[in-house]
Specification:
By secondary structure, this protein is of the alpha+beta class. It has helices spanning 9-13, 16-21, 29-50, 63-68, 95-105; strands spanning 2-4, 7-8, 56-58, 82-85, 110-114, 123-127, 137-143, 149-153. The chain is built from five helices and eight strands, in the order E-E-H-H-H-E-H-E-H-E-E-E-E.
Length: 155
């Protein structure tokens, strides 16, 4: 099944952890509808702009999978509203180029520069809410001296 022209449901819901633990990670109902919306409003503009495959390192996470990996209880991944993009080692645009394109050209709820350094994120998180206004919130994920993740608001 395709969520959009260039994004399949299998690609969006792929998870090695789900396979290993026997977890059904298929979005259904409102989560599937949110995934289609995200694919059309966020993924397709990125894919079309760069004209190359865009690698999703994390898409949908069922509640069971999200718990298994220690994800936040409020994660938009569990609603079908978020993707993590990691172009390192996949050819095409860099993570920085993807981040900047989204920031300047795509409507989004949250855009997160995930770790990395001042020139390149390790990956890019982007979300799009199925309903309601998009916040356009831009954050940077960092770790404190104890290794705990925190977020700095950029916009």
């Amino acid at each position: 099944m395709k969520l959009s022209e260039h994004l399949s449901l299998a690609e969006f819901s792929r998870s090695d952890t789900a396979k290993r633990k026997g977890i059904d990670n298929t979005p259904k109902g409102e989560h599937l509808e949110a995934a289609k919306n995200l694919a059309e409003k966020v993924f397709e503009p990125i894919r079309t702009h760069f004209g190359k495959p865009i690698f999703i390192s994390s898409g949908y996470r069922s509640a069971e999978l999200n718990k298994a990996i220690g994800g936040a209880a409020t994660s938009q991944h569990s609603k079908g509203e978020a993707i993590d993009i990691d172009m390192d080692g996949h050819g095409g645009p860099s993570n920085t180029e993807v981040y900047n394109y989204i920031k300047d050209n795509v409507d989004f709820d949250q855009l997160i520069w995930e770790f990395g350094d001042d020139t390149k994120p390790d990956w890019v998180h982007v979300s799009y809410k199925k309903t309601g206004a998009q916040r356009g919130e831009i954050l940077r994920a960092k770790r404190n001296s104890a290794g705990k993740t925190y977020y700095e608001k950029i916009k």
